[in-house]
Amino acid sequence: MIKRLAGIAACAVLLQAGAALAENRAETVTFAPYVGGYTFQGKQHLETSPVYGFRLGYNLTENWALEGVIDYLKTEGTRTGNNVEMVRYGGDLLYNFMPKGSFVPYLAAGFGGFDFNDSKTKAIYNYGGGVKWFMTDDFALRADVRGLNYSASSEIYTNVEYTLGLHIAVGAPKPAPKPVVVEEAVAPKAAPVVAPPADSDGDGVIDELDKCPGTPAGVKVGVGGCPLDSDMDGVFDYQDKCPGTPAAVRVDAEGCPLDSDMDGVPDYLDKCPTTPRGDKVDRNGCTPQVVESTAQKAVAAGTRLSLKVQFDTGKSVIKKQYYGELKTVGDALNEQKELKGIIEGYTDNVGSDKLNQRLSQRRANAVRDYIVKNFKVDGKRLTAKGYGEASPIADNATAEGRAQNRRIEATFEEIPNFKPDAEQQPAPAKKVVKKVAKKKATAKK
Fold first, then answer.
1. CATH number of domain containing 325
2. How far apart are CA 428 and CA 414, in angstroms?
3. Whole-structure pTM value
4. DSSP symbols for 344-360
5. Same domain, 283 and 311
6. DSSP state of 398
7. Torsion, Cα of 130, 135, 141, 142 (10° steps)
8. Sheet strand arrangement including 408-414
């Protein structure tokens, strides 16, 4: 029962967590059911047991209250094991501290009677205190601890009762509404007409505060009426052709960083500030050194490359994992304009010769087209040729060998009569085949 009531109380706390502060109100009738425990002084030889009870009260004021109480318990003797029932009833006087808050502690004292197993009633008085925790004006959780003293056989016994319960208040008078005070309407006085301060340049800053009179119309200004200079380079934003210049960088009259050697790299980024005029420079303003790249070493006239590009059986789709390999070829062809090449496609021996021939041509075309499209290589410099299942490089009897045979190779050679500065290169020279007239041999008779 105690656990169930504690659960109900916890739920009530959650439901009322957002409510406004409640209080202990005067002139209300209160109901307070409770459960708890009752512990007997040791020499009475009775077991501690659950106790159930009910309080009915009335709040005389916010601080003082009267309550009637009745509770019941059932225990057994620690020596005899006999069942013992006890009923207690009486009246209490309570004093509530801080009644205007939602957390109200109190002290209590009272007098009453009790009896064991319908025996002769004995007088008992109690003292103690507790706390009320209001979730609303009419509902609170209540915890209470009392010491109970009574006399029997010329001895005074002291017991302890501790309880947890609810506190429900009803019947509080509603506060009288405040009287409505109707104020007489007073006609507003006309405000004196004051001429607005002058702003000659119309920038929103009056003349007497404007430190930059004569600012052009439409230009954004600061508090002092001067045009904005967002990058603090000394050139106003509306005149600045290079906004966003880093702080402390020297600029020209148009707000752009200085470029003393006229190489296109501003001085604050130029690591070679005295580059001769007309020299091509890198992003650091320095003349780049010509270094032969890896692509140039791999792709050269007279070389044959076995590209690391393989295909699934019967497929001509290039997988993403091989894009880097094809980038090497594309970059090399862009670096070496004098080269032309042939992309060769091969297959394994699965399928007919005719189908493999077509499949190898599709694979060669796919690689050739990928390089032309993605690296802007002139299509006249690359051709595609399929060789079917000819020239295997591994054993077609195994899956690993067949995968190696599904491959792409490439050969490269120089374009005849290549001119580096010409916009269009001459087409590869065609072989001239001289026709030689065959002389009919005259048989000698």
1. 3.30.1330.60
2. 9
3. 0.39
4. EE---SSS-HHHHHHHH
5. no
6. S
7. 20
8. 304-307, 408-414, 339-345, 382-386
In residues, how long is the chain?
A: 445
Per-residue pLDDT at 142 exceeds 50:
yes
Backbone angles phi, psi at 361, to 5 degrees: -70, -40
37 and 165: one domain?
A: yes
Q: What span, in angstroms and rounded, lies between the C-alpha atoms of 71 and 165?
A: 13
User: Among residues 38, 42, 118, 117, which one has the least CA distance to residue 83?
Assistant: 117
How many domains is the chain built from? 3
Q: Which tokens hold the place of 137?
A: 């004006």
- Reading the block at residue 169, the tokens are 């208040």
Q: Tokens 């050139």 label which residue?
A: 235
Q: Mark whether 274 and 310 lie in a shared domain.
A: no
Same domain, 6 and 148: yes
Residue 394 domain flag: yes
User: Which pLDDT does position 187 carry in this prediction?
Assistant: 74
Determine, yes or no, domain membership for 438.
no
**DSSP SS3 for 369:** helix
The pLDDT score that the predictor gives to residue 444 is 40
Phi, psi dihedral angles at 328 (to 5 degrees)? -60, -45
335 domain residue, yes or no: yes
Do 105 and 162 reside in the same domain of the chain?
yes
Q: What would you report as the CA-atom Rg of the chain, rounded to the nearest whole angstrom?
A: 52
* Domain, as residue range, for 9: 2-170
Residue pair 305/341 in contact (Cβ under 8 Å)? The answer is no
**The dihedral of CA 397, 402, 404, 409: what is its sign?**
positive
Do 119 and 54 lie in one domain? The reply is: yes
Q: For residue 208, what is the DSSP state?
A: G
pLDDT tens readout for residues 200-216: 888 888 888 888 888 89
Q: Select the more confidently predicted residue: 218 or 327.
A: 327
**Tokens matching residue 254:** 């148009």
Tell me, yes or no, whether 123 lies in a domain: yes
Q: Same domain, yes or no, for 160 and 269? A: no
Tokens of 211: 């430190």
Helix or strand run (H / E) with residue 2: helix 2-15
